[in-house]
Design goal:
Layout lengths: L9 H20 L6 H13 L14 H11 L3 H25 L6 H8 L14 H16 L3 H9 L8 H14 L11 H14 L4 H4 L16 H4 L1 H4 L2 H21 L6 H19 L15 H12 L8 H20 L7 H12 L2 H6 L2 E3 L4 H5 L9 E3 L14 E5 L8 H5 L4 E8 L5 E2 L2 E2 L1 E7 L7 H9 L13
Parallel strand pairs: 1-2, 1-3
Antiparallel strand pairs: 3-7, 4-7, 5-6
């Protein structure tokens, strides 16, 4: 096998390049990216962090992601997505190098299969936080298997500021150091928390801000989910073949660790199944805002890639090793294309909101103060979501109790379904301007997807219910006209 410089194998480099080209092709042919509203909000936090520096420490937005991706976000959502393409390429490279450190045959295969995981490929060009977390985790694991324990500990210590799963890995690495009796390594696991605690203390005057501003809590109940949701979603996560080899690889790594008395060999399987179990539990309990999103498992995709390659090591001395590997890659690619339905297309609500934005008066869009129930509107209006003088996100009644005279209130059928529009239309200063309806039927409790546009003007009167009836007859998918109170 041809070697370039300092142990860089040509096959490894070609694998990363091929995977990156695949990501770019899917990126430029897709209408949208993975993540929906969350992706838009992560992009917004990164983009406007330069105007609102406190956003660099926003724990929902993830400080590390915001800090490193914000320069890309200044170029728009597309450039922001390119940041993750670079991160994904670096992650694949680290996975390949780690496989080499582990002595696994055909290390390049781990990088190739990583790009072909259904849960990973759509995120490689997204504006989500999972790829950066996966990169940092891959870096920590590579450092660990390279004998650089302190580097591994320091990198792991920053994981909680890339995603919440990082706290679990701090515990896992601490346990590993205890088993290895490497006591002096453990304090390094506090580096990241100490750094951000001190940085935040200068901004918030609170050394404990990391604890007090956590966006997720155990009592943030959503709904009770299926405890086997992630297990049963194996095809949409790592594919059928990948999932089988992942389990086989876990057994192979654990067996080798026992035989060679190497605790490090247990870490990939332990880390993967720890995250799988944690997300399964919170999804079952409906805690910490869990709603069963598959993409959260992309955080441990590098570990999964190593375990899939380890699964092939059972036949490493067989003539079938190379053919089996290539067959798996072809099968994985085909199944990923089927499972994810690439290239990605905008969903009906995104298309409706985009059409709504295109029909919205430009002057109102740019110069009016807007109160909005949908957190996506600011993106399509190209407005600063965090500029309180121009934009207010309406999440409860207090947000629109006293609106600025001359401002607009946008109430959509999805995010604004909690709002009592009948009560709102009885307020004398509120005037219904028009109702936007989706051209393709999107069923909601109130009927077809709609957006009510209200204006505040205390100096005039109007019959909102009459205006509503006049607009409802223009709905391409008519419904029963609500009674007048």
């Amino acid at each position: 096998m041809r070697t370039l410089v300092r142990g860089v194998v040509l096959t490894d480099l070609l694998t990363v390049c091929a995977g990156t080209i695949l990501s770019v092709i899917v990126w430029i042919t897709s209408e949208t990216s993975e993540g929906g509203t969350d992706a838009i909000m992560h992009y917004g936090i990164a983009k406007y962090s330069w105007q609102h520096p406190e956003l660099f420490l926003d724990l929902w937005g993830k400080p590390l992601f915001t800090i490193f991706s914000s320069p890309f976000a200044q170029g728009g959502a597309g450039a922001h997505g390119f940041f993750n393409i670079l991160v994904s390429a670096a992650t694949a490279w680290l996975v390949i190098r780690t496989a080499g450190k582990l002595g696994l045959y055909s290390a390049w295969f781990a990088g190739a299969v990583l790009f072909l995981f259904p849960v990973w490929l759509p995120l490689t060009f997204s504006t989500m936080t999972e790829p950066l977390f996966a990169f940092l985790l891959a870096w920590a694991v590579y450092a660990l298997f390279s004998g650089k324990d302190i580097t591994a500990a320091v990198v792991v210590s920053f994981l909680p500021f890339a995603r919440q799963e990082g706290f679990a890995f701090i515990i896992l690495f601490a346990l590993l150091f205890v088993l290895r009796k490497e006591w002096k390594r453990i304090p390094w696991l506090a580096t990241g928390t100490l750094f951000f605690s001190l940085a935040g203390a200068l901004v918030f005057n609170d050394i404990f801000w990391v604890l007090e501003q956590q966006p997720y809590h155990a009592d943030d109940f959503t709904r009770t989910g299926d405890p086997f949701h992630y297990f049963l979603s194996y095809n949409g996560l790592f594919g059928v073949a990948g999932s089988i080899l992942l389990v086989a690889g876990s057994a192979w790594m654990i067996q080798r660790g026992r035989r060679m008395k190497q605790w490090n060999d247990w870490l990939p399987a332990a880390g993967f199944f720890m995250v799988l179990a944690a997300h399964s539990y919170v999804n079952y309990k409906g805690q910490a805002g869990a709603i069963g999103l598959l993409r959260v498992m992309a955080t441990v995709a590098p570990l999964a890639a190593l375990l899939v390659l380890a699964g092939l090591q059972w036949i490493r001395k067989s003539r079938m090793f190379i053919p089996a590997g290539w067959f798996l890659l072809l099968l994985q690619g085909f199944l990923t294309w089927r499972a994810v339905d690439l290239p990605l297309r905008e969903n009906p609500v995104q298309r409706a909101v985009q059409e709504f934005s295109s029909t919205f008066p430009e002057g109102d869009k740019q110069h009016r103060k807007i109160y909005s129930t949908d957190p996506m509107f600011w993106y399509y209006f190209n407005r600063d979501f965090w500029d309180e003088e121009g934009w207010v996100q309406v999440n409860h009644k207090g947000h629109y109790g006293k609106m600025t005279n001359g401002s607009l209130l946008l109430v959509d059928a999805h995010w604004g379904k909690w709002m009592d529009k009948r009560e709102l239309m009885q307020r004398p200063e509120i005037h219904l301007k028009r109702i936007f309806f989706a051209r393709e039927f999107l069923p909601y409790e109130s009927g077809n997807y709609s957006i009510y546009i209200f204006e505040t003007d205390s100096g005039r009167k109007s019959d909102n219910f009459r205006t509503e009836r006049e607009w409802l007859i223009k709905d391409p998918f008519p419904r029963n006209t609500p009674p007048v109170p």
